[in-house]
Amino acid sequence: MSSLRTLEETVRAAVDAKDYQQIPELLGSFEEACQNPNPFSFLSNFPQNHRIKVIDEMLESFIPLRPRSRPKIAYDYLLSYSLQSLHPLPLALAILQRTLRSGCVPVPQIRLLLSSAWLERRCQSQSVADILLEMKSIGYHPDCGTCNYLVSSLCAIDQLVEAAKVLKGMSSAECVPDLESYSIVIGAMSTARKTNDAVEIMKEMVLNMGLMPRQGMVIKVAAALRANREMWKAVEMIAFLERKGCPIGFQGYEVVVEGCLECREYILAGKTVMGMTERGFIPYIKVRQKVVEGLAGVGEWKLASVVRQRFAELKS
Predict the structure, then answer these.
(1) For residues 142 and 132, what is the distance between their CA atoms, to the nearest angstrom?
(2) At what angle do helices 301-315 and 285-297 cross, to 10 degrees?
């Protein structure tokens, strides 16, 4: 305990002297001994306004340090301290923003602490935008990096509904969500096989934000629809993306066609294959055989013939 007290006293002395740039080195020299209590615990004795001012000055002083990762240990302790304090937000969001902008990744436990602090504030009936905009009261502004980390933290503890609410509330907080924002939520929804939400959010992203999904996102949603045996919905999603000019890669089509075959939706498989070939893609030989045989098996001889002819044209 003596080394912990010594460290806290040393950090306190640096703060009192406004010698903030020495703090990362001080923390690094005591890193093995310093686990608990937090070396910034003494800040709780400061009036709230003074505490915020000191931490803001500290964060500003870290900006010119090189390499930029040099203050990482200080960021981690400041985040841990602020998130476990009586009033964690918006200060913790400001510290998080500075951490991410320095190129540092917070320690894993920060995700749970941040999610807990966020959910506690939301339980007080405050809107997403109101909480985020509180950052402006201490001289900071919400940005995509900070919001995306919050969204991914909520997804990590299966708070998918709240993550979607943060995504939708970002614009009202003067922070327009980017492709990564949507990718995080859509990916989590797909993993949980909440396909209705995943498809709805993807359509909103395309229609309202003018963003086109990455190939990996399309494949992930298509795979979730396949796992749920919702192939009509998968074909509709592909058709929607095609109409909006979104390029669908080979794997995206492949997942949908194979899902249709598994569900014995041979007509759907045939129509999807035709769309696939129009874009220069040709399925693997076993898939081609199953599509033609499946169509013939349900009496769709004309479509089977058209599909077979199309395959022959592409192979030539």
Answers:
(1) 6
(2) 160
